[in-house]
Amino acid sequence: MNGVIVHRTENFPTKEIHHDARSIRDLKNAKSLTSIRFLDSPTSLQNVAAQICRELSKEQDGFPSHDELLSNLITTNEYPHFKNAVKNFNHDPELTIGYAEHIGLQRRRVFIYKVPTLDQQIFEYFVVVYTPFKQKYTKTAEETAKTFASLFVSETLRRRFNEAKNEEEGFMILENEETIYSSGSEIFEERHSNGPWYPGKGIISDLRLRLHYYKSDFTDAFSDRRSVEKCLSTTIFLLFTILPTSIAYGMLNEENTGSVVNVSKVILGQWIGGLFFGIFGGQQLLIMTTSAPLSIYIHVLFNIAHLNHWDFWQLFACVGIWCQIFLFFYAIFEASAIMRHMKRSTEELFSLFISTTFVYKGIRAMYDVYKNNVNCLENGQQGCDTASVLIFIGSVLLCWRLATAFSNFRNKTILTDSFRETISDYALPISVLFAALVTQILFFDVHQTTFHSSTTSDAHWIEFWKLPLKGHLVAIGLSFPLSILFFVDQLLVTNTVDNKQNSLKKGSSHNWDFLVVAVLNVALSVFGIPWMHAGLPQSFLHFKALADVGKDATQREVIQKVRETRIPVLSAHLLMIPFYFFLPKIAHLMPISLFYGLFLFMAISSLTGHEFFERICLFFTEQAHYPRRDYITKVDQRTIHKFTFCQLLQLGVLLIVGMAPVNYVRMTFPLVIFMFIPIRMFILPMFFSQRDLELVDGAH
């Protein structure tokens, strides 16, 4: 039989059900709207559809007929399938959702069928939505199907359905989901209500949202076996990610301040700040850390204190306190509202700048070691060691290459799926330990550079009020640009992690996080410990480590599920406490070459799915091999390249300012980032149409 079959399948992003009133109402009315059936033996889609249509026709007293409903729902060819279906971006072979409309139906109906597969260990789910013709938009078959598709994309819900023994337990699961989503919706509506504004309103609404999810921030880590495995591997991953960067920034501070600020101070601040924010912070996926711009600020303060014969720690404490006072006012008056004007391009510029600096650190370290050895040989000095240079460069590249290979192991086809996942989850510690063993065992007689750990007291009370009046005035002046640095970095890092593309469910809390960061840094300031704020790429890598990542039809990585829990970040920082106390005894066992290998890995791995970097690669990609992206098919190629070129110019400005040899120039870095917002709002629209800008640089 010859003919044409019309088959329509739509991909769509997961619905934010707690923001959708109709979806919540459908869950509330689940018993009247939905029929749940648990079958005992495997069957086909055609049999399920036939059974559903018989039941629906019987409810309607035989009109429309079973055959009429069935022909409206599925194709009649050799391999039947739904005429209309919805799928999440992450194609799931165990979930099939079809929908149809019929003029003869009196009300909407949803059918959920749980069907065992041949091995009886895995279940398939068939969901069918049937509605009357010409319904209100929010009640159409398509929109209702999207609601239930978004529900069933949750692994937790599917696991509970798998464990349910009968239909009644299935309804209890849906009722529980309605309770969770509706309570979250009430808080969301209050946060976005048009009621009277007052100072601190944003902080209060953020706190209410966090308290609503606070218990689940801990229990989600133990919701299923995979979550426990992920949290354990993420804990180890964070330990191997955060510690090397803390040590590197500590070494930088030692160099800048003559060891007044040292490695042990930075590590002390790291575990104190990490635990404090892990307990009280709003967005639990953020990692608090010191940063290169903060190290530059400390260097400038050290020089100013030295020139004016002031006590460095007194100036440090005063600048820190005043900076956090400004940050407190940003929280009170909801300065984070500026985020609505900050487009994805600004976040991409910032994250690519951070990745570029990490790559630069790794390459520069190898070059410096090589150059120092060349100078040593040319000057005829004693103690030149070419072998140590080769081992240093080899260790950096070995650590980076192993970490990259192991992290991509889940995409291979050898061994079992669970084994590949385990190797990928523990890629970083495996690579570091393997590279360390190779260098220590095979090249034990070659000198390797390690870092120095001070045994002096770290935390001490600072009598900041004894700073001269002129010093207090200087501190106020220096604290304002520092507060802009905190403000911009905190917002950009938060939005890089918490955006719609990343499928987080618990919402953000910018204002509350500003308050927590301010309180934390006041304490760090008065005890002489380096400041900290949310950092990249650690926060983004933390998010990815807790996520299940799949690929869509275009082979692009997509986030399937994220475990939004505090357990890994708290566990990792608790493990740092013994490391801090034993640091003087084990420092000589840690070659710094491995740190730079980790920097390369963190920088390059954070570029996966980075749209700006992807568009840069288009300059060197044959058109026939362009990735299948929405903006590529809808925007002219020249326009895409022109926009990317504009971003490259902005990135160049960031690199010039951020890596300038003069520290006072580097201090303007946050102001430069801030200026990109009005440039995007007012200048770029002069050269690009609004449609093209939305497609290339719209919302996540």
TrEMBL record:
Which residues does UniProt assign to the signal peptide? none
Bicarbonate transporter-like transmembrane domain location, by residue? Answer: 201-374, 386-698
Gene Ontology cellular-component annotations: basolateral plasma membrane
What are the GO BP annotations of this UniProt entry? monoatomic anion transport; monoatomic ion homeostasis
Q: How does it sit in the membrane?
A: Multi-pass membrane protein
List all membrane-crossing ranges.
Answer: 231-252, 258-278, 312-333, 349-367, 387-406, 426-444, 473-493, 514-533, 586-605, 643-662, 668-688
The record's listing under InterPro entries reads: HCO3_transpt-like_TM_dom, HCO3_transpt_euk
Localization, per the record, is:
Membrane
GO MF annotations, alphabetized: solute:inorganic anion antiporter activity
Q: What is this protein called?
A: Bicarbonate transporter-like transmembrane domain-containing protein
Species of the source = Mesorhabditis belari
